[in-house]
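Bench notes, bay 3.
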Amino acid sequence: MEKILYIVNPVAGGGKTKELVPLIESTMKHRNIEYSIVFTTKPKEGTDLAKEGLNEGYTLIVAVGGDGTVNEVAYGIIETGRGILGILPSGTGNDLARSLGISLNPKEALETILEGKTKNIDIGKANDNLFLNISSIGFDAEVVIVTDRIKTKIKSSISYVIALLITIFRFKCIRVEMEIDGLTIKDNILLIAVGNGKYYGGGIKILPMSNVEDGYFHVCTVKKISKLKLLFLLPTIVNGSHINQRKYVNIYKARNIKVRTMEKSYLNVDGEIEEINGEVIFEMNSSKLRVTAND
């Protein structure tokens, strides 16, 4: 059995994550498995804690928190070049867990970790930024910015819904030039989503055909659309049926994507936002990441 380190973000999920510690302790003692629990105390600390754990002989590093915590721990494993990532989802989004078929029920998710089944998943790159799930440009990047502001006052998934409604009325489409495996496209777009995973925004199924193991990105582009039509389109994005709205939505499968933006715009990389400086190049990282997951 693996030697397990649990890295807990005590403020994830509005502070509810720390309530999972007794469950972890009782389960591990019952299984008689060697383990330790450490807590993050500041942003980005999960990466360093993962590296330290691997250097101390832990082989399975479990992120206990939301997607931000998962990414921090994953980066530590990737940078070290060894180790397995486990996910005990307890944030507001938990989108990578969804794409991996991991239950959002803590007891079931813990069982998945301890069963030891793993997948080698793709690692995407957006310029110099690594991502495991989805990176995007346009409308949804703006939603993340607004959500982060709202979450300082409303620490629940409803913050995303409020941010969505605000952004609908504020956002202006952007002109882009895209190269998708050699195919050149110029258009006014609402959003571009490039991903390994299926979900973002707390369960929105933006890329329903994505496969985290196949070595390809799936790409969804939504063309410029009126605000009224967008209100009708958004519910279909939640369940993934937007891919049938071919007048406005295009889906591609590719290994290399380049996007040039003509207006000020932002890049969303697994929930982290940065301003785009000219262009974004999406490509697959040379290595993969081993993760505990359901079949």
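Next record in the batch:
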Amino acid sequence: VQVLASSANTGGAVISGSVVNASALTTADYRLNYDGSNWTATNLSTGQAATLTSGTSGGVTTLNIDGVQLSVSGAQAGNSFEMLPTRYGALNFQATLSNAAQIAAASPYVSSAGQMQSGSLVNSNLGNLTLSAGQYSATSGVLASGSVTLGGSGQVLSIPYGNNPPGGYWNVTLAGSTAVSGDAFTLSPASGGNGGNAQAMAALQTAKTLAGGSTSLEGAYSQLVSQVASQGNQAQSALSAASAVAAQAVSSQQSVSGVNLDEEATKLIQYQQAYQAAAKAIQVGNSLFTSLLQAVG
């Protein structure tokens, strides 16, 4: 997350940010203001105040705004910052693989619908597990074991991956009204031809993961393109209007203090003709004066 400090800020505030909840992100930028006691945030796309929660520990203030967490220290009254959560989100995207065969396109496991005794529980991932009165255990190879509270919904069972590579879990999500003893589903290692990971990645294009779950990556990109086009059109219209005003101002200035070349050329001709006429009059006068002197002498 990029955070820019105002050039008018005083002191040596240190601020950094990171995304903590991608589904809550929006495509907007934010302005943060500190009055010495409280922080406020403004959504620059809507001009409305954004919901902000804060807490302080050990001289460091933590701010949470629409999926972003900021850490601030040393802020002074009157300081302001501009936060750009997603503007440069794709700036450092790059391909790290040159061999398509190295892409992990397959899911580590595949699943089937299984058998739900309750008739109302929904399992989207499934796995070689049988739910009992408070325990879940493997029925075909030990993939996982543990306990789950029956009669609830939204339970997540985390099944550890194998040791090659080590680490990571396959999360089985149970949703619905109730789970009862005897509910079962199957989960098996993936075989050739499985493309679950690739399909899940492709599904991110239209999955509503941004703006609090209200828009997708594709939708946010379309909004960004539309916004840029609209702002570009507004800038072009503003330029045309400003150019017209500037041209009118120049015309008005020239009408008062400018030089009209045709008018000045006409005046020069008039002055030249007047000079020639005056010279002729002097010549005639001089000739008459000479004649008079000769006649008297």
